[in-house]
Structure to design on (724 residues):
DNA sequence: AGATGGCACTCGGGTTGTGAGAGTGCTAAG
DNA sequence: CTTAGCACTCTCACAACCCGAGTGCCATCT
């Protein structure tokens, strides 16, 4: 009973099942795939594969379907990567390069993956934590508030309000709502000239730095500045570090959720749990990060129960990092039923990740 | 055959059907609602209501269910608005006021509506077109490019790249991808001092202005500036007007799509068309804008086929505008099956819209 | 005139029974 | 080790069937 043929049988089962969505029996296996042996032989092999946990049968007298373990073996050793053809590549490239800003690029990438794979696409925003600081802007807005705008070198823009009404030494608070009647601010701290100088100093110290290096750089600025300005400078510095460090703001965009409802992907448990899992952006992010740190071709695959999320027990996740010149600044991927076209999905995800990396502002 | 009682019967049918999700017959109608007449009488009324097109029966010998027209009559004349109780109001208020920036506020509003109504929530970003300009920032970034950051008085921040490498007179182009080897820029146009002056002038001219007034204000600045700077100034002005005017960027956020998959809202056509409609953000936006311009309590309702989108033929949309001091800067709402709890949904949407208006940066 | 009770009729949905087909495991032979 | 044959099991599709809910209509009552 040759080991090779057993694997060939597994591959045939996976491919056939992915294609027909129906349990596959020994007869069709010999007919549709050129295995050159009789059904009875196949049956023996299938019994062995089932014993080893690679396939299972939904009920007696139905064909076999691959288990999670079977799919795993398939993607690890049996799947042949099938690169996209040229027109497809071209289409990806032009569609992405027509984007107008970061939001647009990521939105397009999502729609692209959703359309290429016919599944759900997830695209993570470039992590602030991993981005460098490109520019820092200070804008005084009515009263005692300062708008701090942070621009990263991945093109992302974040803004926060800083309340500078509080006296020196007090911890400046992040606010969104005006207190209806705040204390009268000290206008001197907010005049354009002073702000301009502060902005110049902070920018000079911080430009291009990564988050890890920012606190030190800012500390030097705070030390070198006029003592009356020091609290303000420190407030701004803290706010910026806080903004870049907060993983709360690790946003992701979804696309193609409508694909989930298509008839050809019926989930056993209904798609309620899947949709719920997709809304849990925090958990989803965790999953993606975990996934991108896997070795291999750069594309990570989680199959069925391999991902801890219960809602995704019937789905597989294919994800890849992306980012300028080799640095992974974020992750994108595709989510579909475990019974998915792995080679095709992997190829699509990888292709979009590559072109996205190329198109990102550098 | 009293007109009043007929309406009472319609109301009872709607309420019962919304509650039980099953066609309601004459018997249960007399039992569960205190109508004080016999089933036979009810049957006569129902025949009349059916004749008038307010109710229908899915098949012979099943109870009646309301038609779109029936729901319409119900919300217009029969529904009693049921205001939220105090703890609920409190919860909304505190949850919204904990938000940290605009993205967060809108995200929270969405989750709030989704949870209160058990349906899908849509929240439109404050329209740039209706916003005033709070501040304009110019940031030189590597080479011949300028980053223009626009901050509106609704707290929204937009950024665009401007390519200033082209000679005077040429139309500056919006770019996202670097040409690998661009022409050497004229560095003099981008030095900090000049930019600072330009920024100051533009801001002085434009601060607080609405989109409609911007072109004139900018024109005056362009005219009054050093001739060598005029092309640059005009480029920036055009870009800003273009940015604020583009309805392309009218983003919306969705929440609670998982609610669609809950068993209690089975759609006849499946939820595929619904999900697809929700992904068509452009069309969805059109629907919302159309909807908010309706008179009445400030909350607009579209029932079933009333909204043109085919995918939403089995759903109703409840929407309300929101915005600081009476101005509607954007719209938010809830989407669910036509068989929804209209009074409850209307109350929730209205409440969230009000508190959101209060919490927005003014 | 409007409300009511009675009654025949219709129809959808659930239950049951049956037969066909697909697929398997096992055993014995090539 | 492969193959053919065979008995066995189970699902699915189909048909027959009954039951109950609900209706429409008509004669009767107030």
């Amino acid at each position: 009973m040759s080991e090779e043929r057993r694997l060939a049988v597994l591959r045939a089962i996976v491919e056939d099942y992915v294609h027909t969505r129906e349990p596959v029996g020994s007869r069709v296996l010999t007919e549709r795939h050129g295995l050159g042996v009789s059904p009875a032989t196949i049956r023996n092999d299938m019994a062995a594969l089932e014993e080893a946990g690679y396939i299972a049968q939904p009920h007696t007298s139905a064909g076999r379907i691959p288990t999670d373990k079977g799919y795993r073996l398939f993607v690890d050793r049996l799947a042949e990567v099938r690169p996209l053809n040229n027109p497809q590549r071209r289409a990806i490239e032009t569609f992405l390069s027509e984007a107008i800003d970061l939001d647009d690029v990521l939105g397009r990438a999502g729609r692209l993956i959703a359309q290429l794979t016919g599944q759900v696409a997830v695209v993570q925003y470039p992590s602030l934590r991993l981005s460098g600081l490109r520019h820092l802007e200070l804008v005084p807005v009515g009263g005692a508030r300062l708008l701090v705008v942070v621009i990263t070198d991945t093109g992302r823009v974040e803004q926060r309000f800083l309340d500078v009404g509080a006296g020196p030494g007090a911890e400046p608070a992040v606010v969104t709502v005006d207190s209806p009647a705040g204390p009268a601010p000290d206008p001197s701290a907010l005049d354009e000239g002073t702000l301009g100088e502060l902005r110049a100093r902070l920018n000079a110290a911080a430009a291009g730095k990564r988050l890890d290096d920012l606190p030190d750089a800012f500390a030097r600025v705070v030390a070198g500045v006029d003592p009356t300005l020091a609290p303000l400078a420190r407030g701004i510095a803290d706010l910026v570090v806080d903004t870049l460090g907060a993983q709360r703001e690790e946003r992701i965009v979804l696309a193609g959720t409508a694909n989930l409802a298509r008839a050809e992907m019926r989930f056993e448990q209904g798609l309620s749990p899947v949709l719920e899992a997709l809304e849990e952006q925090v958990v989803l992010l965790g999953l993606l990060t975990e996934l991108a740190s896997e070795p291999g071709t750069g594309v990570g695959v989680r199959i069925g129960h391999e991902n801890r999320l219960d809602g995704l027990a019937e789905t597989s996740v294919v994800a890849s990092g992306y980012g300028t010149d080799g640095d992974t600044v974020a992750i994108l991927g595709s989510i579909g039923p475990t019974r998915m076209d792995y080679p095709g999905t992997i190829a699509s995800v990888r292709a979009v990740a590559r072109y996205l990396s190329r198109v990102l502002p550098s």
Remarks:
- Residues 1-2, 37-41, 44, 59-62 of chain A lie near DNA strand D (CB under 10 Å from a C1').
